[in-house]
Every structure is written in C-alpha cells, then in structure tokens.
Amino acid sequence: MDVGNSDALILPVPPEPFALIVGDAMQRGSADALETALRHMGLRPERVDDGPSGAGALIAPPRFRLRFGAASVLAGRAADAALDAADPDHPSTSLLAASLPRDWRQGGHCWMFVPESDDDPAMSTEPPTRMREFFKMMVLLIDLFDASHIFWSPARLWSDAQQFRGSIAEMLTSGMPPVLHLIAFRRREDAAGASMGTRGLALFAGQELEARIPGGWTVAEMVRRLSRLALDMMLNGPVRGTRTMRGLEAGEWIDLLPQTAAGGQRSTVVVEFGTDH
Question: In terms of DSSP H, where are the helices of 175-261?
Fold first, then answer.
C-alpha cells in the first residue's frame, strides 16, 4: 500500500463523496450508445440538463441520473477539475496497488459518479443503505466500462478496479466493509516523530483515527492495527468515550481517546499503543 509522508498540500475536493473509474470502454460509442448500455444494465438512465451543484458540477455534459435500488447517482465524463482533484502524482493522493496508465485522463477514459441524497423525507433512506446500493452500482459499472482503476474521493485513494470489485462482492456476502479500498492510511513526520492517520473513515463513522507510531514498528504493523479499529467503527459506529482494549498481540493494549471537534475540524480519535512489559 502506498502511504503518504505528508498532507501539507491537500487537493481541494467537494464535501460530497464521489468515485471516478478509468476504462478503455468509456471512450467507445456515442452518448446515446452509452445511455442504451446503462439501460440494459438496469440503471434507468435519465438525461440531466440543468447544471448540478457541488461535486455534480464536476461532471461534463451530457450528464445522466442513474438509479439502482435506493441509490440515485449523477454520472458522466469527469471534467478537468475532477481529474485535477484525483491527480495520482499529487502528494495528498494515495494509491493501493495501483499504477495508472499515462493517458488515464485523456480521451474520455474517466467517468465520474456522485451519489445523491434524497430531499424528500418520505422517500429518504438511511445513509448506510444508500452507500451499500451505490457500491453495488459501482460493481456493475466497473464491468460495463471494463474499468482498470477506481478513485474514491473521501479517502483520495486510487485502487485497482478489479480488486475493488472483488472486495465489494465479498462485502455483499460477508457484510465486512473493504477497509483498505475505502480508507487511506497516511504516514506523517513532525517534530514529535512519526504518526499515522486515517482519511475517509469519517464518512462511515463520523471520526478519523490518529496514532503515534511506536519505535520499531513498521508501516504494515500500523495499518494492520488501525484497519482493525476502523472496521470496528464502520460496523459499530463512532467511539463515544475513552476506552481501553486489548491489542492484536499478547500483552498489547490500546487506548482510544475521542477528541472534540472544534473550528470546523474533523472529529478525531487519538490512538495510543502500549504493552504490559
């Protein structure tokens, strides 16, 4: 897994989550042909003529509204601003076993998908259900467009599309979210030493994790432990109060210290590792 050393320069991305997928099949055929293909996949495409706001404004026309179960998604070719926000060479972008082709942003290879919320309270669906349906839709779209890579904006994370597809299929069977494909784990250095934090966990649990790296620990050891904590929060919700729990190894313990968000900052849980000896 590619782990960034610094988040000092953060690419601006809209607050709404979105996904980009890259695939050769996206540049084939007309908009009408693509609309027909989307309809054959059962996604009920509708043309969207009015200019959407937020992340939807980063979709180049023609735009489509796709529907699958409880999910409603704006879709279309990604505009330059969306491609800039997903730049794989930028230090704030993470990559999980992914090496994009040189022409990934050229020739209409890249499409963008923005899940919509429902403004009608009578028709509203719980966010976890909508996101589950959204990821089901992404499995269909990866197949339809023969996608090679996928970008998930809350984590600013690129993944191999087939690995992402497989992890979502496993989630639909087991109920276990694919943490490594939805959450980025970022290593940082400052005057106090090395630390690691999550990015993208707040979408699912309302909090991010931040932990100092104990001396002698590898990045892989940190990711293994933080991903376990992140999975627990995705399944069971945020950490409401200070907690102490056993770690992965014998004699290891973990303190979880939720911090109150202030000044528009994200809510963070400070993680401290220790041992009995």
Answer: 179-182, 202-205, 219-236
- How far is Cα 82 from Cα 57, in angstroms, rounded to an integer? 9
Q: How many CB atoms lie within 10 A of CB 198?
A: 27
For strands 157-160 and 94-96, give the pairing: parallel
CA distances from 133 to 29, 54, 81, 199 (A): 27, 21, 26, 22
Residue 196 Cα to chain centre, angstroms: 18
- Asked if residues 137 and 68 have their Cβ atoms less than 8 Å apart, the reply is yes
Relative orientation angle of helices 161-174 and 127-144, to the nearest 10 degrees: 140
- Residue 269 pairs in a beta bridge with 209, 258
And the tokens for 35?
């609309």
Of 163-177, 200-214, 248-262, minimum mean pLDDT range: 248-262
Q: Which two tokens stand for residue 147?
A: 């996608």
Other beta carbons within 10 angstroms of residue 46's beta carbon come to 14
| Max CA separation in the chain (angstroms) | 67
CB 147 within 8 A of CB 141: yes
Q: How far is CA 263 from CA 54, 129, 267, in A?
A: 22, 30, 10
Under the banding of pLDDT at 50, 70 and 90, the label for residue 118 is low
Q: What is the pLDDT of residues 161-190, one digit of tens each?
A: 999 999 999 998 898 899 999 999 999 988
Provide DSSP, 236-250.
Answer: H----S-EEEE-SST
